[in-house]
Structures are given as structure tokens and as C-alpha cells.
Specification:
Layout lengths: L1 H11 L2 E3 L14 E3 L3 E3 L12 H9 L5 E2 L10 E7 L3 E9 L13 E7 L9 E10 L10 E8 L3 H4 L4 E4 L5 E6 L8 E8 L8 E8 L8 E8 L4 E4 L3 E2 L11 E10 L7 E14 L1
Parallel strand pairs: 1-2
Antiparallel strand pairs: 3-18, 4-7, 5-6, 6-18, 7-17, 8-13, 8-18, 9-10, 9-17, 10-11, 11-12, 13-14, 14-15, 14-16
InterPro entries: Polysacc_lyase (IPR025975)
Pfam families: Polysacc_lyase
Length: about 280
């Protein structure tokens, strides 16, 4: 059954209409997504073994240079197309190694990064929806240091870029949680969204992050929903009111997916994350 679904996905990209009722469970997997009232901003995210996976990611996310890859371990694969996943068929695989660095900022010796980013399109007043499938290494080890698998970030000054606006993070040893930050001030894990780590490691997860880029007083909010591969609802945060626009000097926000973490002796020699059907949608 799983192999049949994988073939169907690869060939016809089945579309399931969610109508933004993201908290409703479904008996079927949403291998592809469509959302009433939103326009899709991204192209097809589907790799081919032996093809140009990095080029596909750039085209899909609309970003000419979307990958932030360590400058260490250059002879080892960091980005590749993994074929014949029993559920998803061909998938994008990110691998990070225990001794990797942050190629984005090699002066920071305490962290490492393997991420892909979308365009800086989240302007004040916009509402975006980010939808994707991911699977974390079932043997992944994490610590109480930061370990982000998704970020919403701004460009601009050091004050604007010091912290992400929002992250999905594995900072707690046994949890995946949402963390919301403020301008130049790190926040705390939100009590409104968290999952036990064993609910998400080694399994395909459907993730949805809806972000209204406005000040809290103007209706700014974020909502996170996750389902398992069969469409069963794991957690829905509902709308969390937050300052989703920091000040008049803010740059547009962008999404980032991957592995961004503080170095720790707890890690395995390498860890991986798989991706399928990464999409960006903007509200009409």
C-alpha cells in the first residue's frame, strides 16, 4: 500500500483540499496541498536521483541561492536525492555531521547549519502559509541547546537578525516545540505547541505554519498544525497572538527549513532530515 502511494505521489502529485481547517484530521495523507483563499508562491518540490537537486530546490523556493551548507566535510554529501522511500518515493535528504560548521558565519565556532530558505516575501500585512512533509532521523540525539528544524527570519540589522521571529525547535531533549521571540529578545518555548520527540522522529510528518505578519495589536498571529502520515492530527496550536512584525525598519520575513544547532558532544557522527513537497502560500 505504501509503495503504491509513493508511486501515485511521484506521478500525479495528488491534491487534497484542506480549506485551512488544519486542525481537522483526515483518513488520507495530504501528499500535496491546496488551500482555499491562498495563492501558491512556490513551484514543484520533487527531486530525481542523478538530477540537479540543488537547482530543483532553488526553482521550487524561488530563491537563486537557497542553500546554506557547511564549508566542512566537503567530500561528504550534505544535500542529495534519496530514492525509493517506502512512503514518499524520491525525497530530499539533508545530512549534518558532528564536526560541521556554520558556513553562513564561520566566525561563530559554537554552531552548525544545513538549511534551505525561501524568498524574503513576508511583508507587513501579509499572511503566509508554509506547508511541508518532513522526517527526522529516528536515532537523532539532541541536547538542551538550541536545535532548530524550521525558522522564520528577517534580514537587516543585527538587532533584526539576532533572533528568529519563530522556530520549531528540538531544544528540549524530549520535545519538539514552538518558540516565539521578540525584537532583540529571546523568548521561551510556547506552552501552546509542543510534541513528544518520539511522536515525530523516524516518521513522516505533515507540518503547517500560518503566519500573519502584523503587530499583535493589529491582528498578528502564528498557528502551527502537525499531522502524521495517515492524516491523524498530532497537535494544533490554534491562533497564537504575537508581535509578528517588529518595527517600521523590519525587513520582509522568510522561511527556512533544515538543521541549525549548537554544537554538542551528544550528537551522532551524522544526523539527517528528509523533505518532501515543501510549499509556500500567500493569502489573497
Amino acid at each position: 500500500m505504501k509503495s503504491t502511494r509513493a508511486v501515485l505521489f511521484a506521478l500525479i502529485h495528488v491534491v487534497v483540499y484542506c480549506h485551512l481547517s488544519l486542525g481537522q484530521s483526515s483518513s488520507k495523507s495530504n501528499f500535496a496541498f491546496s488551500f482555499a483563499g491562498y495563492n501558491r508562491q512556490s513551484e514543484t518540490f520533487l527531486c530525481s536521483p542523478g538530477g540537479n537537486t540543488k537547482g530543483m530546490i532553488a526553482t521550487a523556493l524561488g530563491e537563486s541561492n537557497p542553500l546554506e551548507i557547511p564549508t566542512t566535510n566537503k567530500r561528504k554529501p550534505h544535500v542529495q536525492c534519496e530514492k525509493n522511500d517506502p512512503v514518499m518515493g524520491n525525497v530530499v535528504k539533508f545530512t549534518i555531521y558532528k564536526d560541521d560548521n556554520d558556513g553562513n558565519n564561520v566566525t561563530l565556532k559554537d554552531r552548525q547549519r544545513m538549511e534551505m530558505k525561501g524568498k524574503k516575501d513576508g511583508k507587513k500585512g501579509d499572511t503566509f502559509l508554509y506547508a511541508w512533509w518532513f522526517k527526522l532521523d529516528s536515532n537523532m540525539k539532541n541536547s538542551d541547546q538550541f536545535y532548530h528544524i524550521f525558522q522564520i527570519k528577517s534580514g537587516g540589522s543585527k538587532n533584526l537578525t539576532k533572533f528568529a521571529l519563530a522556530t520549531l525547535t528540538l531544544t528540549k531533549k524530549h520535545q519538539l516545540h514552538l518558540q516565539l521571540n521578540n525584537l532583540n529578545a529571546e523568548g521561551k518555548p510556547s506552552p501552546k505547541f509542543s510534541l513528544e520527540i518520539n511522536q515525530v522522529k523516524g516518521k513522516w510528518i505533515q507540518a503547517f505554519v500560518e503566519a500573519a505578519y502584523k503587530k499583535r495589536s493589529e491582528g498578528g498571529y502564528i498557528r502551527v498544525t502537525m499531522k502524521d502520515e495517515n492524516g491523524k492530527l498530532l497537535r494544533d496550536s490554534t491562533k497564537i497572538r504575537h508581535n509578528m512584525w517588529w518595527d517600521n525598519k523590519s525587513y520582509p520575513f522568510r522561511p527556512k527549513w533544515g538543521l541549525y544547532r549548537k554544537i554538542s558532544p551528544a550528537y551522532q557522527p551524522s544526523d539527517w532530515q528528509l523533505f518532501q513537497n515543501v510549499q509556500i502560500w500567500k493569502k489573497n
